[in-house]
Amino acid sequence: xxxxxxxxxxxxxxxxxxxxxxxxxxxxxxxxxxxxxxxxxxxxxxxxxxxxxxxxxxxxxxxxxxxxxxxxxxxxxxxxxxxxxxxxxxxxxxxxxxxxxxxxxxxxxxxxxxxxxxxxxxxxxxxxxxxxxxxxxxxxxxxxxxxxxxxxxxxxxxxxxxxxxxxxxxxxxxxxxxxxxxxxxxxxxxxxxxxxxxxxxxxxxxxxxxxxxxxxxxxxxxxxxxxxxxxxxxxxxxxxxxxxxxxxxxxxxxxxxxxxxxxxxxxxxxxxxxxxxxxxxxxxxxxxxxxxxxxxxxxxxxxxxxxxxxxxxx
Length: 314
Known about the structure:
Helices cover 46% and strands 16% of the residues.
């Protein structure tokens, strides 16, 4: 039996700096039956010039589109993909050479699994290893576990094209958590599997969207609200306690950001109020909610007395 075709999707937006290294890591795979779809998402840099020399390889397909975000670019790639399996390699990340070979073998062996993913290591702009704690490893029917946070890095995933055709592609309204929302939709219906070793290198740099913790928290909340609105069957797969705990956590974190980092006490009060809807008698959040209800002079006075009290006991 011949090796199944893998379609690799690489969306690019002004990513010329590291794009060659990413493409080279795909071309260096020990598994060679793939097509690499590079989707230029309206770049204004020299992305096209970087890609041009690679187009002598018939496996490389270059697509251009108006800028619409990474989810839209990935969906464009999916429309053109011919492979049995789909893999994702972003413009600044790298794969280790056996990534595709090991993951294709895993899915060929486990026909029930919707996708396979792995661990990953981390590098900086210059390619130096970076230590970063990333807890991962969930597998099987794991929707409830995945609801608690995203354990799955998109560049480590190899997914069946038939599964995407079944559940749908990336939600273009959820830029930044579009991959997470897709994994949730997949695990509503299918088990997944995991390889417990790194097969990719994620690059940390200043423009990584996922480094902005506040924006990511807001988007995680939006992704969950979208999922449960569009897929009410999800309520059957998670306990009320688990769902309430996750919503409490997200609203509390957003309330903290608005109140303590942005001094927007109205929005802070709003999110603390929603947090208390899911965990009514949490004393810390009750105190923060009440603090946000005070007038500005009252908050200043309370801060003054609190500082005096701490000095008195110190």
